Amino acid sequence: MNKIFSIFIYVLIGLMGGIVFPPFNKMILLSLVCGGIYFSYLLYGIVRSKSARGAFLFSWGLGFLSYIISFSWLVQPFEFVGASAVAPLVVVFFDLCWSVFFGIVGLFTFYIKREKQYLGFAILFTLIEWVKSWIFTGFPWNPVALVWSNNLAMMQSVSVIGTYGLGFITISFLCLPYLFFERGKTIFKSLQFYCVMCLTVVSLSFGYWRIGKYKTFEPLGKSVKLVNRNVVQQDKYDISNIDEYIKFSKIGADTDIVIWSETAVPVDLFRDEYSLMKLMNFVGDNKTLITGFDRVEFLSARNFKLYNVMAIIDYVGILDFYDKRHLVPFGEYIPFKKLIPFQKMVEGMIDFSSGEREVIFDIGGLKIYPVICYEAIFSGLKLPQEVDFIVNISNDKWFAGIGKVQHFDIVKFRAVEEGVPVVRVANDGISAVISPLGSLIKSIDGREFLNESGIVDVELVKRISRPFFSKTGNLLVVFLLICGVIWSFCSFKPFDFTKKNKKY
Q1: What pLDDT was estimated at residue 343?
Q2: Neighbour order of strands in the sheet with 454-461
Q3: What are the helix and strand counts (H, E) for the chain?
Q4: What span, in angstroms and rounded, lies between the C-alpha atoms of 359 and 321?
Q5: pLDDT at 49
Q6: What angle in degrees, to the nearest 10, is found between the helix axes of 2-16 and 52-70?
Q7: N or C: which end of the chain has fewer CB within 10 A?
Q8: Cβ 414 vs Cβ 381: under 8 Å
Q9: What is the CA radius of gyration of the chain?
Q10: Which residue numbers in the chain have pLDDT < 70?
């Protein structure tokens, strides 16, 4: 009976780990309570494990259970391509594979000297989060710092220490219940306790100071129109979409820039002169269009490359374009294609190719940094001071409701890290203009803009001074994390897969 109850608690707390992230963190207290229980229980289970193998399996299983909730949206892309029958199995397999990183944290934490396991766990977990941002091309979805995506004050610390720096503070804070349970009244004699409390209070205080400093933003003197038609996947390449988008774009006031979503144009504008002329006539000589489409580059009669493109168009034609550089594994290309018998989830059998050049659009002196869909989840863009704002176009039709909110909330962290506004247009997602502090300036039908069409006109604001993190990126934080790992293991025991750590 006790074993059944223990398994029930294990599963229940594991599922709680998924409630830490959006959209559940709108109730921040619930999210923090669940996060505190989850991470403290995770660390407690690692410390109490009888072997390294047990610590690995305990962590791996708990990570898998949290992913069942937070990655549940991954089922939807398979349903769109008619693979709904196997979707749950594929997603479960992905969750099992990706939660191995949890197991790695548990394995190495087991060997840290007992008095250092509390901070050592937080350091290792954060470092592994960074590793997940680049290994196998990277998938840094739902970093722990995302807990604070609805708390503007705590978000401001990423302007200095980035998403992973805030992630370390967050994990340390959420593991405080473990420290209380483990040390009791002696916790108030613990230097680690005071360090974590100090970091949390300083981060929160800095956030309120920064919000007060930028109570208002200077107007940029330019306006944008965000256009979302909620095009369903099977109609994505319907040529009539161009006329529908143009019709939508004429609603409301005239703006300097009109922005459509990723692949809003169903043809290659470099090869379809008629469609390009339509768009040139639409924008006229008083505005500019930013939109997405697929570009084909022929290398020979039978050999070509396919690119996911964002382009700027005015009355003379395509002024500049950007080829997406960071592609979605299994969505836009198949990694290790010769070894994996798997088809990608988007239309067609041909893989997309990665762009090779970084581009900063220039529209009459206005500097715009293009980011397409998936690229917005990566921390450390290190944008120069000359960039006025980021444009992020996406097709969030691939995501279920949870995924759409998570995608949008991750993008808010890029605004704070770089100190620039973000203009985001996402088909069937949340389309909005985000301030340099991560707050909403204006959106289409608010945060709940899902499964709807709409347009909104927004006056842009100027960027703020370049934050410290924008200059350094993740380099400093990763260096400090590596130093932290060295500190954690400076007196660890030889690897022994059978014996349990002795209680200090």
Answers
A1: 54
A2: 317-323, 304-314, 288-298, 257-259, 219-228, 454-461
A3: 16, 12
A4: 8
A5: 96
A6: 50
A7: N
A8: yes
A9: 24
A10: 1, 79-82, 334-349, 445-452, 491-504
Which sequence positions are flagged as catalytic? Answer: 262, 324, 373
- Provide the 3-class DSSP secondary structure of residue 484: helix
The rounded distance, in Å, linking the Cα atoms of 163 and 150 is: 14
The two tokens of residue 497 are 């897969």
d(CA 80, CA 158): 36
Q: Quote the pLDDT of residue 306.
A: 94
* Residue closest to 313 by CA, chosen among 280, 341, 267: 280
Q: Which amino acid is at 203?
A: S
- Please state the separation of Cα 427 from the chain's center in Å: 17
- pLDDT (tens digit per residue) in 321-331: 999 999 887 77
φ/ψ of residue 84, rounded to 5: -65, -25
pLDDT, tens digit, 9 for 90 and up, residues 401-418: 899 999 999 999 999 999
**What 3 state SS string does 436-466 have?**
CCCCEEEECCCCCCCCCCEEEEEEEECCCCC
CB-CB neighbours of 240 under 10 Å: 9
Residue 166's contacts (CB-CB under 8 Å, 6 or more residues apart) are: 145, 148, 154, 155, 157, 158, 203
Q: Which residues of 149-184 are buried (b: 16+ CB within 10 A; e: fewer)?
A: bbbbbbbbbbbbbbbbbbbbbbbbbbbbbbbeebbe
Which residues in 25-43 are b (16+ Cβ under 10 Å) and which e?
beeeeebbbbbbbbbbbbb
Average pLDDT value for the chain: 90
Q: 176: which 2 tokens?
A: 């405080």
Residue with tokens 């570009």: 295
The residues facing 329 across adjacent strands are 333
| Closest C-alpha to 393, from 366, 364, 420, 429 | 429
CA proximity to 74, closest of 428, 403, 453: 403
